[in-house]
TrEMBL record:
Domain ABC transmembrane type-1 residue range list: 105-319
Swiss-Prot/TrEMBL keywords: Cell membrane, Membrane, Transmembrane, Transmembrane helix, Transport
Pfam family, one: BPD_transp_1
Taxonomic placement: Bacteria, Bacillati, Actinomycetota, Actinomycetes, Kitasatosporales
Record family assignment: Belongs to the binding-protein-dependent transport system permease family.
Protein name, entry field: Sugar ABC transporter permease
Species the sequence originates in: Streptomyces asiaticus subsp. ignotus
Length: 332
């Protein structure tokens, strides 16, 4: 009996001692596979990012240091090296090129602030008011997402026809039907072009804010609103004390995305006004395009693009740093 028990214990020790080693052996390939699988799945996206963004970006930075014009574009690699001359021309506000770029920069800043603010305000207000269940809410949500679902070119071309001076719908309603103006207005030229551009930008941008905020509202517990209502808090107090603080992480990302999209918007002014945007609506994206392809000064245009990239990187970095500090302060 004693011998049998000793043999059984020895067998158990042998099995238990050999099992981890045997288990660790086959696990290594599986572990390596699990570690390498995410990189393998990301490889197509990394290759596309390299080809679509990184390589053109490096080439653009290289072109900004060359005196690249229509005479040297055929063999751009052999164009003479200009150093920092293109950047000096771009930032010299006393010269025509620098003065025009500065004007375009301020127009773009004003346009971005108004567009992002209105998109966020309309999207947030609509999402909050459609939070409660009522008949027809699904239909309204679908209709509000139509501008975001439409192709950009289709939407902007439609607005361009509506802003026509003689037979546009906007002048027909404001002047012929409502009599709000003394005469039909020019919306695609002059100072009114800024209003037209802002209108189109907000119209096609606010449904995205509405969609993001509506998704963020689903994560707010209803018990918070019920407890606030029992304490006597009204609708505006609930929005101020519960809804907006709970949506702060969502709004931080939303505002940043809207800022980057709006500041870099090229399709809207290009389709709305063509190659030559009015002075009042001369966004920096269309201004860089005109400098590059209208005057065929690729070196200066590339330098302006690099400056725009650096500005966006600095603003984005400061914004992320500020929001992260606020988040840490709120957590403490």
């Amino acid at each position: 009996m004693t011998t049998t028990t000793a043999i059984a214990k020895a067998d158990r020790r042998t099995v238990s001692g050999s099992t981890p080693g045997a288990a660790r052996g086959p696990r290594r390939p599986g572990r390596i596979r699990r570690i390498g699988l995410p990189y393998l799945l990301l490889l197509p996206a990394l290759v596309l990012e390299l080809l679509v963004h990184l390589v053109p970006m490096v080439m653009g930075i290289l072109m900004s240091f060359k005196a690249l014009t229509r005479f040297s574009i055929r063999d751009w690699s052999a164009a003479p090296w200009s150093g920092w001359d293109n950047y000096k021309i771009s930032v010299d506000i006393n010269a025509p090129a620098g003065e025009a770029l500065l004007h375009s920069f301020w127009v773009t800043c004003g346009f971005t602030v108004l567009s992002v603010g209105l998109c966020w305000l309309l999207g947030t207000a609509t999402a909050i008011f459609l939070q409660d269940t009522f008949r027809g809410r699904g239909v309204l949500r679908t209709l509000f997402l139509v501008p975001y679902a439409l192709p950009v070119y289709t939407a902007v071309i439609t607005w361009a026809f509506m802003f026509q001076h003689d037979n546009g719908l906007v002048n027909h309603v404001l002047h012929d039907q409502l009599g709000l103006t003394d005469k039909p207005s020019f919306w695609l030229i002059g100072d009114n072009s800024f209003i037209a551009l802002l209108t189109v930008s907000v119209w096609k941008g606010w449904p995205f804010a509405f969609l993001v905020v509506m998704a963020g509202l689903q994560n707010i517990p209803k018990e918070l609103y019920e407890a606030a209502a029992l304490d006597g808090a009204g609708m505006w107090q609930q929005i101020r004390r519960i809804t907006l603080p709970s949506l702060r992480p969502v709004n931080q990302v939303l505002v940043l995305v809207l800022f980057l999209w709006t500041f870099n918007d090229f399709n809207t002014p290009y389709v709305l006004f063509g190659k030559a945007a009015p002075e009042a609506a001369d966004l920096i994206s269309i201004h860089v395009y005109q400098t590059t392809f209208a005057t065929w000064n690729f070196g200066t245009g590339s330098a302006m693009s690099v400056l725009l990239l650096l500005f966006l990187l600095v603003v984005t970095g400061l914004y992320l740093l500020l929001t992260s500090r606020r988040r840490k302060t709120a957590d403490v």
